[in-house]
Write a structure and sequence with these properties.
Strand content: 5-15%
Structural class: alpha/beta
Largest sheet: 8 strands, mixed
Number of domains: 2
Low-confidence stretches: 312-336
Number of strands: 8
CATH superfamily of the largest domain: Spore Coat Polysaccharide Biosynthesis Protein SpsA, Chain A
Strand order of the largest sheet: 7-5-6-4-1-2-3-8
Order of helices and strands: EHEHEHEHEHEHHEHHHEH
Number of helices: 11
């Protein structure tokens, strides 16, 4: 079977309302590129009719459509990892199903990849998100770059292109929690970025709550750097030094002015600050220990319920095997 040049991996989670519009736009957009392609939809345990719509779409375009139906929700990045393990193209593009990144923009990434880059990210032009979300995203981008040294201008945008070599390197990693754009950046030798259009969601709401975004950034910080632990260690040393200095000053003050009752609430405030600092450090340490705990359990990252694909090579092998069995049975009958 001829391997496609392009694989497009699209994670799906409760996107029933927007899938018809996605189907109507992505196939013409990819046909216009003039490249052999496949589209891999990964249903991430959707609770609506997304899986049924994927089955119907597979029946319409089985030549270029493949679908992985996960048994339970594994998260966006694990769904993409599942698609990476099944994709066959030399260039792999990830795309969200909400059409905030138009499928017509995929051509820009392909053109950039053909210039010799092995990883191409995208920067949203005139973002259609809320002001708070845009500001928070920029702030987290700056903090992430300082901590991890990973330079991704727009980390929340999943419209990205990867070479086969980068995807193979990602597939070799067995992390149970990761951030795929950052992981790809660590493997890429010649990364690049392009500016793409950005639109409002066709239907539905964002699947990322504020807690999910915070959770994702914790995974990003702790999964790619030890800097948070090192920063906290240095902060602990500074606090210890400051506490020792304060203790000496209080002793000197007591010897000079005698015992005093004033300043009690100041000491309470200082104590509460130190307790909060200690709890923050325990939580930070818990993040790293939690990642270790999840990793050492060696549980599967996702479970695949069904795979919808039209693999000619597999069908040919099955047919050939059936012919051999029939010939062998016929020969046995003749001998008898």
């Amino acid at each position: 079977m001829t391997m496609p040049t392009l694989s497009v991996v699209i994670p799906i989670y409760n996107e029933e309302a927007g899938l018809p519009a996605l189907f109507a736009r992505i196939y013409p957009a990819l046909d216009a590129l003039g490249e052999t392609y496949e589209i891999i939809y990964v249903n991430d345990g959707s609770r609506d009719r997304s899986a049924a719509l994927l089955r119907e779409q597979f029946a319409r375009r089985p030549d270029v459509t493949r679908a992985l139906l996960l048994a339970a929700n594994a998260g966006q990045h694990m769904a993409i990892m599942a698609g990476f393990e099944y994709c066959r193209g030399e260039i792999i593009v990830t795309l969200d199903a909400d059409l905030q990144n138009p499928p017509e923009e995929i051509g820009k990434l392909i053109a950039k990849m053909k210039e010799g880059h092995d990883y191409v990210g995208s920067i949203r032009k005139k973002r259609q998100d809320s002001l708070f979300r845009t500001w928070a995203s920029k702030a987290m981008n700056q903090l992430r770059e300082k901590i991890t040294r990973i330079r991704i201008t727009d980390q929340g945008n999943m419209l990205r292109a990867y070479s086969r070599g980068v995807v193979d390197a990602i597939n070799s990693c067995k992390e149970v929690a990761t951030f795929i754009p950052a992981l790809a950046y660590t493997f890429a030798r010649n990364p690049a970025e392009v500016v793409v259009e950005h639109e409002e969601r066709v239907a539905g709401d964002s699947k990322y709550s504020l807690y999910s975004l915070i959770r994702l950034n914790f995974d990003l910080m702790t999964g790619f750097s030890l800097v948070p632990l090192q920063w906290f260690s240095m902060l602990g040393m500074l606090v210890a030094l400051g506490s020792g200095t304060l203790f000496v000053l209080l002793i000197v003050r007591r010897l000079i002015f005698g015992p005093e009752a004033e300043g009690l609430f100041t000491l309470f405030a200082l104590m509460f600050f130190l307790i909060g600092l200690a709890l923050f450090g325990i939580g930070l340490l818990g993040e790293y220990i939690g990642r270790i705990y999840q990793q050492v359990r060696l549980r599967p990252r996702y479970l695949i319920e069904a795979v919808l694909e039209n693999d000619v090579s597999v069908q040919a092998n099955v047919s050939e095997a059936n012919v051999k069995v029939a010939v062998a049975a016929d020969q046995r009958q003749k001998k008898e």
